[in-house]
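Predict structure. Input: NAD(P)H-binding protein, 213 residues.
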Amino acid sequence: MKVGIIGATGKSGRLITEEALKRGLDVTAIVRNASKLEESKTKVVEKDIFDLTTEDLSVFDVVVNAFGTPIGQTQPHIDAGRVLIEALSGTDTRLVVLGGAGSLYVDASCKQNGFSAGTVPDFAYEIAIGQAKNLEDLQATSDLNWTFVSPSAFYDPEGPRTGRYRIGGDVMLYNSDGESYLSYPDMALAIVDEVESGDHNRQQMTVVSEKHI
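Output follows.
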């Protein structure tokens, strides 16, 4: 399976890349600056996400979008998402997007998402809005195979790899401690699982994990 990973030098992208390589997938890192890439075994395409084309991406079975922006930016997630939609619509390539949690319903009543419930932290609000709009754009497509993967409310870069995670749909999940929590390493596991399985085509999915092994 040929997998292109956009943002492979970022915190999440690096872990996704490492996990995909461990499983023997044919991985290409798609990055702006190849000198930042730590994994020497990875093939590289050095190109800005905003310049990617159908020719660049349709060679892959799956493209993972782990693109990240500095805090406080909304539009880059929207614009980057639209570039990928345009490039991959009408192709057989699946797009797996590492998205945000703000669009998740906070409980099974499905009456409020993170924005309307006021649970999105101020520091993440602008990015979360951009990610939510990206989801809306994906949902409006008719000829694109996509999956939008939402983390839990607390997406922990310092958390452990436990392998103890659960998958859900568009409703926030909670772990055995009653927390909406997900570690970066467990998100990487879940994303590569989805890359391999394709179980959530044209769906939003979410992931929750335990804090301890």
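DSSP finds six helices and ten strands in the chain.
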